[in-house]
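batch_manifest entry 22 of 60
target: ABC transporter ATP-binding protein
source organism: Acuticoccus sediminis
requested by: lab member K.T.
priority: normal
notes from requester: please return tokens only, no post-processing; we will run our own comparison against the previous entry in this batch. if the run fails, retry once and flag.
--- input ---
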Amino acid sequence: MAETVASRLSTTGTANALELRGVSRLFGALAALTDITMTVRPGERRAVLGSNGAGKTTLFNCITGDFGPSAGTIRLFGEDVTAFPPYERIRRGLRRTYQISLLFTGLSVIDNVYLACRGVSRGRFSLMRPRRGDPLLASARDLVDAVHLTHVRDTAVANLAYGQQRQLEIALALAGAPRFILFDEPAAGLSPTERRELVEILTGLPEHIGYMIIEHDMDVALRVADRVTMMHNGRIFKEGLPHEIEDDPEVQELYLGGAHGGH
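--- output ---
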């Protein structure tokens, strides 16, 4: 049976969800990240904003273990995971979505989510088809409902609208009772209506699931985040509450050209 949310939370204790201490990443002579120090509390929703080249995706890659930092440490719920491969971080409750959709387009929505649930379960190597009462299949249905795709549950992913595919990616990230999720530009390419639905989905996630979101749409980011980190040239430029970042003159000048106003 899949590990329950309660059993994961019982081992969380009071440790921070994520701690970065002096994290840097070099690509040859290029410093993509320099001395990133950041703390994210359990259940906190953190937005990471900045222009292209600010180091946001490199930061995510270091956190997930896609490549390691050149210096510094990364702790996940109190455990040093700096040298851990990605699959070990997944086992500890970390999930991620990517800028480019990674889906099985020839399968249905429910089959994609079921495979995600199966992939983080103890029975992931079994070749048996799911039985009618399979708890993983029930979990998959719940996740499809949570991301507002119930009406297309049996539709092939190839036939979904782009925004629906992005919603499906969120369902995949929710498989297996995650504790912390990294969302990489989930609103990119979405229509205004789809962005509103995205905000509804993200703000409706269970309170114990924290996340970090990279987002160019500041209106989306400020509505779904408890706290905001601004990056510039591989460094942390500003941190604060959403309204503090929105009203900050330096932020407006550097990232928004002074043109942003309102919510």
